[in-house]
Design a protein that fits this description.
With 198 residues, the chain is α/β, with parallel strands linked by helices. It has seven helices and seven strands. It folds into two domains: 3-7 and 19-51, no CATH class; 75-196, 3-Layer(aba) Sandwich (Dna Topoisomerase Vi A Subunit, Chain: A, domain 2). It has helices at 3-12, 20-32, 35-51, 86-95, 122-130, 145-158, 184-192; strands spanning 53-54, 61-62, 76-83, 100-104, 136-139, 165-168, 195-196. Strand 3, helix 4 and strand 4 form a beta-alpha-beta unit. Helix 1 packs across helix 2 and helix 4 (86-95) crosses helix 7 (184-192).
């Protein structure tokens, strides 16, 4: 394999879900593209990496400060949906059924991987709740062992706020499923049939 091709394949295969075979196929496709299209793609990726930031309020991605959800005055600020990653937020937004706001944790508690509660944005979530504006917290995180650990940790913290309703998305989503890969109809059903957490 040519050194330049091998270099591109090696770099692309570092992306999640992209093995060397897929990386090779993508590299060969890029080679067939017009030079201007490739330059535009590279510029877009570099611009994204340099200028994208996290919303200081919820953790969603933003171009310049508050994200589209947090800056939208039509969103219900009394309801916060807690998700693991931005990809989960995007999956819920695709359903066009949820009108509240979000809080992105940035992962789940995982002692095996060295991820403690302090590594997540749980403190920011608690600040939002202490402000008194939040009336319901929907916990929409994976049903993995780590997700369940995070759920119970959050429940224990949130119980000190009896005025806040704590709900969990309905379990039409199977145990161990990643929210970002669940279809829109299942997410819609899970949100609509959320239940209080005992």
């Amino acid at each position: 394999m040519a050194k330049l091709l091998d270099s591109v394949v090696s770099e692309m295969s570092r992306l999640p879900g992209i093995g060397r075979r897929t990386a090779l196929r993508l590299a060969m496709h890029i080679l067939k593209m017009e030079a201007d299209d490739v330059a535009s793609m590279v510029e877009s990726i570099a611009d994204f990496r340099q200028h994208i930031c996290h919303c200081p309020q919820c953790g969603n991605l933003s171009d310049d400060g508050l994200c589209e959800v947090c800056s939208n005055p039509m969103r219900d600020r009394s309801t916060v949906c807690v998700v693991e990653q931005v990809a989960d937020l995007l999956s819920i937004e695709k359903t066009q059924q949820y009108r509240g706001t979000y809080h992105v944790l940035g992962g789940v508690i995982s002692p095996m991987q060295g991820i403690a509660p302090s590594d997540l944005t749980i403190d920011l979530l608690m600040e939002r709740i202490r402000s008194g504006e939040v009336r319901e917290v929907i916990i929409a995180i994976s049903t993995s062992v780590e997700g369940e650990t995070t759920l119970f940790y959050l429940m224990n913290l949130l119980r000190q706020y009896p005025a806040v309703r704590i709900t969990n998305i309905a379990r039409g989503i199977g145990f161990g499923d990643e929210l970002e890969y669940v279809d829109e109809q299942t997410i819609t059903h899970a949100l609509a049939n959320r239940r209080p957490i005992e």
